[in-house]
Structure formats: C-alpha cells, structure tokens
C-alpha cells in the first residue's frame, strides 16, 4: 500500500509551472521560436500556426479546387522537414507554379485539419539549383 501523499510534491511543482506558463502574457523567449537558417528561411517542419514565416522548397503537387463558385490554386511545398500547402484564392493558374518547381514563399501560417497552410503567399520562383 502506498502512502496517499507520495506523488503530490511532484504534482505541485508541475502544477505551479503550468500555472506560470498559462498566466504569462509575455512573448516566448527567442530560444523557443523555430530556428532560422540562411537568409531567414525557416524549415517547414518547425513552422508554427499564427506566425509569419519564409519557407523554401519544391512544389510536389499543384491542383485547382473549386469551392462554392470560387476557385483556388493549391500547391504542396516540401523541403524534407515537412510540407506546407500554399493556397492562392480566386486563381486557376499562375505562371511558373508547377510540380517540381523550387520557390520561396512567405506569409502567415494557418492550421488546417492538422496541416500547415499559407493563404495568398508572396513567392519568388528560384532558378534551377
């Protein structure tokens, strides 16, 4: 039989740390933000929703998705660490946006059904590397 107070000191410390973290209105410390690489590009696997990011990768798929009378051009960008879906609302095609094309994209990251999405990103097509 275990004494009733055996695990309580640990729970108190964890509870206190959790309360401090949840009640803090401060921005997270810089070491808690995703690390950036050369030229300010963030690895896709480290981007978090509701933050701006610049990502670099290769387009895997490009599709047109009709929704309620409007359409959107969608492309999955991957860099080996993860994938982000780029969505251009109201567009059927964009010159240069095609599978296997490398590009930089920047914008606000959103969460969508467990994935990462960037709506109407600013992008730059990259020359073959």
| Helix-strand category | mainly beta
Report how far apart the termini are.
66 Å
What integer is the average pLDDT? 80
Helix content percent band: 10-25%
Number of helices: 1
Number of strands: 6
- Provide the low-confidence segments as ranges: 26-36
Q: For the CA atoms, what is the radius of gyration?
A: 21 Å
Strand content: 35-45%
The side-by-side strand order for the widest beta sheet comes to 1-2-3-5-4
Overall morphology: globular
| H and E string | HEEEEEE
Structure notes:
Helices cover 12% and strands 40% of the residues. It is mainly beta. The protein has a five-stranded mixed barrel. It is globular and about 35 Å long.
Question: Which helices and strands occur, and which strands form pairs?
Answer:
Elements: H1 8-23, E1 52-67, E2 70-78, E3 83-89, E4 102-112, E5 115-119, E6 122-125
Parallel strand pairs: 3-5
Antiparallel strand pairs: 1-2, 1-4, 2-3, 4-5, 4-6
């Amino acid at each position: 039989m275990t004494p009733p107070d055996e695990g309580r000191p640990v729970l108190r410390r964890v509870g206190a740390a959790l309360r401090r973290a949840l009640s803090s209105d401060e921005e997270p410390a810089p070491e808690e933000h995703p690390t950036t690489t050369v030229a300010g590009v963030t690895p896709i696997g480290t981007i978090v929703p509701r933050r701006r990011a610049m990502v670099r990768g290769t387009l895997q798929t490009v599709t047109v998705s009709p929704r309620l009378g409007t359409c959107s051009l969608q492309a999955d960008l991957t860099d080996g660490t993860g994938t982000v879906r780029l969505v251009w609302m109201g567009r059927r095609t964009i010159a240069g946006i095609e599978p296997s094309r490398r590009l930089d994209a920047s914008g606000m990251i959103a969460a969508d059904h467990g994935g990462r999405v960037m709506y109407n990103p600013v992008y730059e097509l990259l020359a073959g590397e």
